[in-house]
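User: Last request for today: this protein with BES, please.
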Amino acid sequence: MSTVQDYIDKNIQTFQNQLFELLRIPSISTDSSRKEDIRKAARFLSGHLEEIGMDDVRLHETPGHPIITAQKIVDDALPTVLIYGHYDVQPPDPEELWDTPPFEPTVKNGRVYARGASDDKGQSFTHIKSVASYLQTNTELPVNVTFILEGEEEIGSPNLVPFIKDNRGLLACDMVLISDTAMFGEDQPSITYGLRGLAYMEVEVQGPNRDLHSGVYGGAVDNPANVLASIIAQLKDDDGVIRVEGFYDDVKPMTPEMREAYQKLPHDDEEYKKDLDLQKLHGEKGYTTLERASARPTLDVNGLWSGYQKEGAKTVLPAKAGAKISMRLVPDQDPKQIARLFTEHVKSIAPDTVTITVDEHHGGHPIVIDLDFYGLKAAAQAFEDIYEKEALFAREGGSIPIVADFKKILGVNSILMGFGLTKDALHSPNESFSLKDFHRGIKTSARFLELLPEYS
Ligand code: BES
Ligand code: MN
Ligand code: MN
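Assistant: Here's the final one, the structure of the complex with BES:
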């Protein structure tokens, strides 16, 4: 075994403890009261990158949360890998559903439980430790490495795109390496070659100027909650087809080759149902579960509010109703265009008894990475060497909008080398990450860096 791989095995306990330190910092990007904690996480990482011997470690201020960069350029003739990760996390809510405190990393059955354990502190830390293992053993890094770590991924990366545009020189690279996705199953290394985009909308329906007695006014005044329910019900038909005018215009149809590749992936609808305690699955007619969940676009209500929500009954005709609706997009749908079509459509079907406002939250472009890209081949071999199993190539339903921006701005492909699992409970209570995959992740990353020059 190589010096670096050996060093990783011998120091895994220390690496874990360092990760746990990071997991203790509640770096919740959406929560303005956590601004200082976000900075603390950023400082922890920049300090750590300095400690392991990275050059030019910088903490860049932005109008939001800081971006960290660090470099190790060994030879201009070698490929340069830009390693991206995010140190911000989702809120732990609902906190009462956690078995152990979300910011007190707890080890149970070989997994560490904490918010951000998998998404994305644990996963992105694998690369920091892999590069550290080269530097600490005085083993020449086989490639040039630049890190870029952001603290705003979970709120749509508002400051990252301008940062990339302003720092093309610093970020110049041959490819991006990201661990922020899931493996196809336990012990099944997987490379994600597609991610969906996102258009996230908020609809508000305003009726009368105040909440009304539902007996005194009910029947004579239109009810915003009823109106909103009716609008939502009209957004999809019984076959799961989205009825927003023009929604599918730019959707690239699946080719027979694509569908064949999907058929070869291991998947069992029965197990899928059992895992979720569902009697029956649902989705767009004519497509399989995996296709529906990653190759086809969606429209889903993510939040819904109106009227009386507490215990018991209150007879009220609410003045307002609101919904948060997200659409997952596939190539070549454009988030801005979809947001426009959605807004026009909702306004066109709304009755004139109420006032409708449609607002757009953050969005992102979908991406599919060309399977011929040489970086993917090196990644597959690295996975195979460490996991002793051939890696699968699959598209995923989640979104990492910056992947499309890296392609657009820097002209480079991303390698999505996920070490997580869907059972990691990302964004849910009791998020966790397998410590075995943390260990294998570091080793796979180190092996990848070693293999890459042979493939380029
Ligand atoms: N790491 C996830 C994305 C992900 C998870 C991709 C699992 C594939 C498999 C990322 O942190 C995330 O949560 N992204 C958001 C989008 C963002 C714009 C808020 C998402 O997908 O909802
Ligand atoms: Mn993530
Ligand atoms: Mn996330």
